[in-house]
Design goal:
Rossmann fold; four-stranded mixed β-sheet; globular
Length: about 200
């Protein structure tokens, strides 16, 4: 059996990374487990606790930060996010590839931890989903119908900074259609599995 991977996917809001991660886990249900991130963000319509995110109060999240529970944690658009280190370890320990959807701050923290931990470094695969056309990014965010105009403006502005970090990732997908993006992510996954016996 190939060595278990820790696949870290990042990209600006509206890049489609959440959909891509869901599709990858659906395509390989016997191999990949998505790590459910904790957040202080309020659930959006249709989101369920323990399925989409672990929704925590700010106080609970901060207590877990103080206890060293998270693999990484960051403030994104005013809310706290972070995956629990134990959740990642459980998936990898059971032989599953662990899939994480994190922001650029979180990915940087995980890369830094990998530099000090050879086992983490050996498992780590980083992927950035880049949407270079800001008009397209705004169209995608508006099309979701979940955020007010000022929040969309904030997310588009944040995307400019996030895109500057793309070069820190092992793989960059230039976002096009959903099908093309998924094909690219699937190709990265299969090639990484093939080269890590």
């Amino acid at each position: 059996m190939s060595r278990a991977l820790l696949i870290v996917v990042s990209g600006p809001a509206g890049s489609g990374k959440t959909t891509l991660c869901s599709r990858l886990t659906e395509a390989y249900p016997q191999a990949i487990r998505r790590v459910i991130t904790c957040t202080t963000r309020a659930p959006r319509a249709g989101e369920a606790d323990g399925v989409d995110y672990h929704f925590l109060t700010r106080n609970s999240f901060e207590q877990q930060v103080a206890s060293g529970v998270f693999l990484e944690h960051a403030t994104v658009h005013g809310n706290l996010y972070g995956p629990r280190a134990a959740d990642v370890a459980t998936h990898l320990g059971a032989g599953f590839d662990a899939l994480l959807n994190v922001d650029v701050q979180g990915a940087a923290t995980i890369r830094a931890k990998g530099a000090a931990d050879p086992r983490l470094a050996a498992a780590l695969v980083t992927v950035f989903i880049r949407v270079s056309d800001h008009a397209e990014l705004r169209r995608r965010l508006t099309g979701r119908g979940t955020d007010p105009a000022d929040e969309i403006d904030r997310r588009v502005a944040a995307a400019e900074e996030e895109i500057r970090h793309a070069g820190s990732y092992q793989h960059v997908i230039e976002s096009g259609s959903r099908e093309a993006d998924f094909a690219a992510l699937q190709c990265i996954y299969l090639s990484e599995k093939a080269r890590r016996p």
